[in-house]
Amino acid sequence: IEVASYVTDHLDQLAAANAENPESKPLLRKFCVRFAERAFRRPLAEAQKQLYIDRQFAKVADSIAAIKRVVLLVLKSPRFLYREVGGAPGNEFDTAARLSFGLWDSLPDRPLETAAAEGKLATHDEVVEQLRRMLPDMRTRSKLRDFFLSWLKIAQPRDLSKDPKLYPEFTPEVISDLRTSIELSIDDMLSSNSADYRQFMLSDAVYFNGRLAQVYGAQLPAGASFEKVDFEPQHRAGILSHPYLLASLAYTNASSPIHRGVFVTRNVLGRVLRPPPKAQTPLSPELHAGLTTRERVALQTQPEACQGCHGMINPLGFTMENFDAIGRYRATDRKQAVDATGSYQTESGKVEKFDGEKDLAAFLASSEESQDAFVKQLFQHTIKQPIRAYGPNCLHDLQQSFANSDYNIQTLLIDIVATSAMPK
Predict the structure, then answer these.
(1) Which of 326, 179, 174, 183 is nearest to 249 (CA)?
(2) Cβ within 8 Å of residue 296, ≥6 positions away
């Protein structure tokens, strides 16, 4: 109803016509046809034109009332509300809609409509050409950005507050700066021509300002604005070592190998974890003052019932134990040297060993398991359907093209949308 009112209030701009002028009816009808075709993402068939346009103008003498009827009827139609209606074979207008919703979550633009009308979306090359044209649009960047924020579990605001007695410098302003920092890192990767997934896992560069530099020990003046700096390359690599992510996967007063290990297991490696048989309260550091965080976690999860999952989770999370609850590097925990060694048994049965987060990041950057998981998760986010719905070879084919493009995320996105737009 609000849209219908808006349309009729702005007919001068939208239809270039005055509704009070009887001679404007052809222009008003033309606008209504265009409105319906945009909403339905295809030209109207003659029967549809009669239903949605002609009948509405025939039922009332007032052009304003007729236009409101058209708008209400169109916006309540399943042809507008649902992406694809009915089981008829798709045509090139369906392909155009799949492309626009895949990259933009929006309607096809004029060039896409024209290509569909002229039969220029019939081949894979024609589809890819359109996708390359659409890729630089800010809507594509926004959708990719949303994926990374979701994938990294930072899409929803999280409570990163820490014990003020232990971390007085970790203020709300620092937390806000860290969120800005990780978003700048994502934007920087997405704006790069290479957009290399491996570099996302390996890069030493972090965006810091003066306030963050004081907390984390980077070499920047106190009042510096955000800039890209190489940060602790001997200890850190890639997005997994970003302080925001590490702080979000930690307790208020201690690191959390379990949270960090679960994140790597599920989000990066794509492994399935069963829910725990019952809820467990973490062992308090105060009750075991002589134990490191690693030792407390090992103690709590040593029962055989826990090891089905924690046998995978813990060794991955332990590799990040050189970082405390705010993601700051540390060499000791509870006055003992940090043990950041870990391991992972691949799906093929091979055991990979790591000494710290850099080793883990190097493995993840080159691992087919992590690459496959990334492809599947980007596919699901982009197309809103599981990759298996597109055939048994879809994942293999996309992973191959991902590797052939030097793991370019933008190229992968184009391949994903092209695959969904023209399923075999």
Answers:
(1) 326
(2) 282, 283, 285, 288
Instruction: Give CA torsion, residues 50, 54, 58, 60, to 10 deg.
Output: 120
Distance CA 259, CA 372 (A): 22
390: left (phi over 0), alpha (psi -120 to 50) or beta: alpha
Tell me the two tokens of residue 64: 């304003």
Distance (Å, rounded) from C-alpha 136 to C-alpha 162?
A: 39
Name the residue with tokens 């809820």: 279
3-state secondary structure of 169: coil
Q: How many other C-beta atoms can be found within 10 angstroms of the C-beta atom of residue 363? A: 19
SS3 helix, strand, coil % of the chain, rounded to 5? 55, 5, 35
Q: List, for residues 286-300, the tens digit of each pLDDT value.
A: 777 789 999 999 999
∠ CA 216-167-257 to the nearest 5 degrees?
Answer: 80
- In tens, the pLDDT along 101-151 reads 999 999 999 999 999 999 999 999 999 999 999 999 999 999 999 999 999
Cα–Cα distance measured from residue 16 to residue 124, given in angstroms and rounded to the nearest whole number: 39
Pick from 97, 92, 99, 132: which is nearest to 418 by CA? 99
Tokens 């339905």, residue located: 40
SS3 208: strand
Global model pTM greater than 0.70: yes
